[in-house]
Amino acid sequence: MTHHLDARRPVAVYTDADDTDITPGVRLLEAAGYEVRVLGTRDAAEIIAGARDAEVLLPGYASITREIIDALPELRIIALMSMGFDYVDIDAAAERGVWVTNVPGAATEEVATHALAILLHAVRQLPFYLASATPGDWNSRADAAPPRLSETTLGIVGLGKIGRELARLAGPLFGRVLGYDPLLPDTAAVRAELDGLGVTRT
After folding, report:
1. What is the pLDDT of residues 34-76, one digit of tens each?
2. What family does the entry list (predicted)?
3. What is the pLDDT of residue 153?
4. Are residues 136 and 185 in the same domain?
5. In this structure, is residue 129 part of a structural domain?
6. In the predicted model, what is the mean pLDDT of residues 172-189?
7. Tag placement on the chain: N or C end, fewer CB within 10 Å?
8. Residues 6+ apart with CB under 8 A from 138
9. Measured distance CA(41)–CA(195) in Å, rounded
């Protein structure tokens, strides 16, 4: 008697990846034996059509609704490429026994660094001084001199991962850092971390 082995490889599908280099992920999945497809869409109908036999779904910004989850009978895991998971119907996934994973801290440093760049751009009046950095306007002065950061108070609303990372980056530059977050627990560990960052909670 001859036994025919099922040679079908499990399927992993990237729905969209607008600003993410998925090459390392594709290589890892293929090395693990997966057939990998990249759909390049956020459209629900196109996702269903292209991922109907997928065990793994990897969305970028596509909303993964109950309609999509219910239409993919082989689906076992939705692997997000972000920290947030508000664009996935978690209840529908749980009802189907589909795991949903995220990447805590995926862009914490990037967002905090960008926030600091915008902050310095505004406080130091860079638009004016960049525009005046020409031979004819070299000695132009703004109506009010930029404040010294060491004499300035920085206020951070939201002390989650990104807010605390911003405090870590910006704290040494500013004279004082105030933080506000009604959702952050007031525990000894949190107080110790904020103290270490030089943040006064308000």
Report:
1. 999 999 999 999 999 999 999 999 999 999 999 999 999 999 9
2. Belongs to the D-isomer specific 2-hydroxyacid dehydrogenase family.
3. 96
4. yes
5. yes
6. 96
7. N
8. 132
9. 45
Whole-model pTM: value is: 0.72
Helix (H) or strand (E) holding 189: helix 188-197
Q: Where are the beta strands (DSSP E) in 47-175?
A: 56-58, 77-79, 99-101, 153-157
Name the domain count of the chain: 2
Q: Find the helix or strand (DSSP H, E) in which 75 lies.
A: none
- Which residues span the domain enclosing 146? 108-201
Q: How many CB atoms lie within 10 A of CB 54?
A: 26
Assigned token pair, 136: 């004819």
**pLDDT tens digits along 63-109:** 999 999 999 999 999 999 998 899 999 999 999 999 999 999 888 99
The verdict on residue 124 lying in a domain is: yes
Rounded Cα distance between 115 and 197, Å, is 17
* DSSP assignments along 108-131, one per residue: HHHHHHHHHHHHHHHHTTHHHHHH
* Closest by CA position to 103, among listed 38, 70, 59, 64: 59
Question: Cα(152)–Cα(163) distance, rounded to whole angstroms?
Answer: 18
State how far the Cα of 166 lies from the Cα of 62, in Å rounded to an integer. 28
